[in-house]
C-alpha cells in the first residue's frame, strides 16, 4: 500500500517474463537435483503489487455476506503458524524454524516424483488432496501435484537465486521472501494438468481441469488463494493453480463469500491491518 501504482505493472511484467522463462524448463528434467529444481520452480508465488487498495468492504461479493459464518476463524488460529487456518503472506511471516510436525508424502500423480521435499503436505491436507484428485478422476479430470511443502531454507535459496539474477528490488516483486510463502505451512499445493504442459500458468484457470478445481476444491477443504484482480490485497499475482488447505467448513464458507482469505478474515472482525509487520 505504500508503493506506487506503476510498481504493479512493472512487477506483472516481470512475473510474466519469469513464468514464461521458468515454465519452459523444469518439466523436461524430472531427475534434476533438488537445488536446481527448486531454483527453477516456476511457482513464483510472489507477485508484489501493493498499491492503494480498495477497501474489503466495497467488494460486490459482500452483498451476500450476511449469510456467511465468518466466526469460523478466530484471531488465535489466524496468528498461530501451526494452525490449519494460519494467515501467511508478506505481512505475516512464518518463523525461520517453523516446520510442520505432520508432513507426509502425497499419494497422487506427481510432476517431480523424486524430489524429497516438495511432494509433502501436512497429513490432513494430503488426505484431502487425494480425495479431491480421486473425485476429479471419476469425472475424467486428471490433476497432477507439482509443488507442495517448501522449507524456509528452500524458499531462501529460491529467493536468493532470483535476487542474484534480477536484483533484490525486482526479485522482491515476483518472488516470496523466506517466511512469506504459504508452501512453508505444508498446507499449499500447486496443481497442474497435461493441458498446460504440466506447468504453472494463468491459462490453467481456463482449462477444464482449472475450472473443475475452481468449482470443487472447497468441497475437499481447499481454496484458490490468489484471486484474479486481488493482487493488492493478497500481495500475490493470480495463481489458479495454488491451492491452500483450510479445512472443509472454512473452505466452503470462504468459497461462498467470494472473498480472498485476507478479506474473509477482516469480515470476521479480526484486524489484520493493525498487525502488519511493515
Ligand atoms: Zn504455490
TrEMBL record:
Keyword annotations from UniProtKB, A to Z: Carboxypeptidase, Hydrolase, Protease
Pfam families found in the cross-reference section: VanY
UniProt keyword annotation of Hydrolase present: yes
Biased segments, Acidic residues type: 26-64
Record's keyword annotation contains Protease: yes
Region (Disordered) location: 24-69
InterPro entries from the UniProt entry: DD-CPase-like, VanY-like_core_dom, VanY/YodJ_core_dom, Zn_M74/Hedgehog-like
Residues annotated as domain D-alanyl-D-alanine carboxypeptidase-like core: 120-248
Example of a GO MF term: carboxypeptidase activity
Superkingdom of the organism of origin: Bacteria
GO biological process: proteolysis
Protein name as it appears in the record: D-alanyl-D-alanine carboxypeptidase
Amino acid at each position: 500500500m505504500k508503493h506506487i501504482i506503476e510498481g504493479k505493472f512493472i512487477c506483472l511484467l516481470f512475473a510474466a517474463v519469469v513464468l514464461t522463462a521458468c515454465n519452459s524448463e523444469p518439466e523436461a528434467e524430472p531427475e534434476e537435483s533438488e537445488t536446481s529444481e527448486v531454483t527453477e520452480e516456476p511457482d513464483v508465488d510472489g507477485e508484489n503489487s501493493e498499491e492503494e487498495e480498495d477497501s474489503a468492504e466495497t467488494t460486490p461479493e459482500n452483498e451476500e455476506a450476511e449469510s456467511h459464518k465468518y466466526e469460523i476463524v478466530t484471531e488465535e488460529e489466524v496468528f498461530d503458524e501451526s494452525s490449519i487456518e494460519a494467515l501467511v503472506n508478506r505481512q505475516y511471516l512464518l518463523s525461520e524454524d517453523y516446520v510442520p510436525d505432520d508432513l507426509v508424502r502425497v499419494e497422487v500423480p506427481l510432476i517431480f516424483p523424486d524430489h524429497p521435499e516438495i511432494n509433502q503436505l501436512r497429513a490432513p491436507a494430503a488426505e484431502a488432496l487425494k480425495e479431491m484428485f480421486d473425485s476429479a478422476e471419476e469425472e475424467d479430470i486428471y490433476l497432477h501435484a507439482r509443488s507442495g511443502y517448501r522449507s524456509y531454507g528452500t524458499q531462501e535459496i529460491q529467493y536468493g537465486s532470483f535476487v542474484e539474477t534480477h536484483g533484490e528490488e525486482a526479485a522482491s516483486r515476483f518472488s516470496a521472501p523466506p517466511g512469506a510463502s504459504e508452501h512453508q505451512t505444508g498446507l499449499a499445493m500447486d496443481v497442474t494438468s497435461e493441458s498446460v504442459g504440466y506447468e504453472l500458468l494463468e491459462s490453467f484457470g481456463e482449462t477444464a481441469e482449472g475450472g473443475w478445481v475452481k468449482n470443487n476444491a472447497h468441497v475437499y477443504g481447499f481454496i484458490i488463494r490468489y484471486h484474479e484482480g486481488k493482487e493488492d490485497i493478497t500481495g500475490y499475482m493470480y495463481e489458479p493453480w495454488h491451492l491452500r488447505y483450510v479445512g472443509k467448513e472454512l473452505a466452503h464458507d470462504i468459497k461462498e463469500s467470494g472473498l480472498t482469505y485476507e478479506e474473509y478474515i477482516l469480515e470476521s472482525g479480526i484486524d489484520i491491518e493493525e498487525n502488519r509487520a511493515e
